[in-house]
Amino acid sequence: DGEVHINELKNGNVEMFWNPTSEVRRQRLKRHIVLFEEQTDFESERLWQHVTSAINKGDQHKATQEKFVLEEEQRNAARERRENGTEWKPLLFQHDATTDEWHYKYEDLRPWDPLNDIAQFEKNGILQTMERHLSTRMSNHKTTCINNQITRHKRSAKDCRRRKTSDQPSNHSQNTESSCSTPESMQGLSDDDGKYLGFESLCAQCGKEMNHLKEIHSAVLSLQRAQQDIHR
Length: 232
Fold this sequence. Notes:
Elements: E1 4-7, E2 14-18, H1 22-26, H2 44-47, H3 49-56, H4 60-84, E3 93-96, E4 101-104, E5 117-123, E6 126-131, H5 134-167, H6 173-177, H7 191-196, H8 204-231
Antiparallel strand pairs: 1-2, 3-4, 5-6
Helix pairs in contact: 3-4
């Protein structure tokens, strides 16, 4: 929050390195933290409160002492677990034996999807992403289109039977009716079936959006592979 300067010991020059002006302060992200009284004993703000207090007062000696007390308590607790054969199981991290590194259990390495991802938030230490579920909306739109086409086809089939029945003698009515698709034939209709029944496929909007989603999906997979390679 304060100015930071670079002091050149050789020539005594002092250079401004960081100046948190009012403009910089206005651009600062809003900080969201758990209320102090709601934090558990091992959360950083509560655990390091005495060290933080000493630093804010400018008492480096006191801060060092408080830090030593904390670290010594942790060493003693680890020693007791070893003696008792108790295994320490971290809540949010897991150890990778091959790389001998610790990793966050719920890390999400996929690229941000602006069409589907709305916001990312933390709850009980777990990072979660709120999504639009675009694929579900697309599926619903697709179903609506097919249902509308089925309704239109049923109506046209009924009109067809009515015309055939009135135009042909009664003893030929059964044969002529079979030339028109009946509503029963529409049961279990698939996309490909729709093409054979005269539907060219889904509506133009569906087609465009589906093609767009395929392109996005392909791009996301490519980014995921690149990000995994970088992470590895």
